[in-house]
Amino acid sequence: MNLRDDIKLVTGTSNSGLAKKIANYIGTDLADCVVTHFSDGEVFVQIDENIRGADLFIVQSTNPPADNLMELLMLIEASRRASAMRITAVIPYYGYARADRKDRPRVSITAKLVANLITTAGADRVITMDLHASQIQGFFDLPHDHLYSSVIFNQYVAGMNVSNLTVVSPDVGSIKLARATASKLDAELAIVDKRRPKANVSQVMNLIGQVEGRNILIRDDMVDTAGSICSAAEFLKERGALDIYAACTHGVLSGQAIERIDKSPIKRMIICDSIDQSKRNLPPKFEVLTCSELIGEAIKRIFDEESVSSLFENQLPPD
Known about the structure:
Layout: E1 7-11, H1 16-26, E2 33-37, E3 43-47, E4 55-59, H2 67-81, E5 86-91, H3 110-121, E6 125-129, E7 144-147, H4 150-160, E8 165-169, H5 175-185, E9 188-198, E10 201-208, E11 215-223, H6 227-238, E12 244-251, H7 257-262, E13 266-272, E14 286-289, H8 292-303
Parallel strand pairs: 1-4, 4-5, 5-6, 6-7, 8-9, 8-11, 11-12, 12-13, 13-14
Antiparallel strand pairs: 2-3, 9-10
């Protein structure tokens, strides 16, 4: 008998490697599950074991392609019809989070739409990590546990023993995260002021803080095309920065992002495995940390009705 046969863990195909690590940390096995496609591309899911009355956790990131989101919704719906007692959607990377407000006419607030879909499918609870905007927690009319990867990254960076460190926020939206990181690492704080004329395009305008003669850690919640972070790194180099490191929770890495980072002044690019990186040929400067223990600990605490927020004492971004 496994250590935790009382917890049922299911995963789709978006990040099965992470799900296996979470299962190993908890001390259980992944439930048998089939995810296939019909010839026309439609998704088909089936959970191949009894989950009636189970406390079920479905691990699935919702990064593109859209099939990942459909798998999550279908797994939730199938679990509800199979009479699971409680269904928790564990979403290490919550896709579509950047569309979190109506900032232009006639645009979709897709982050809210996805929250509605997850609720309608039948989830009872949601776990996410480092949302692009923390107010997205309020889009769910469900209990929501928001995990912070700072626990992982701060420990790793502290072990690097980088002297004269300044933590840099690459834009105004990441100030809280950068400030919390700087406070925990006893480092200075700087902010890059940038403008975004259109999606995936940014222009560095100004710098708040001192970076000359200092080592740099750029801290952000995600890296997509890497245009912003590489532009910021080049800008900081021009301002006299020494070694430049970057720590971004979610490695979306679309388009030419990997090549762009590899050619940039960034000395080490640190991401976590909230998005599956196993099929990518990442250059040596990339370091992938696992969030499996953090998520696994949260799952155990939720099952045992214990505090999840106590995981992040002294790690939460300040107001």
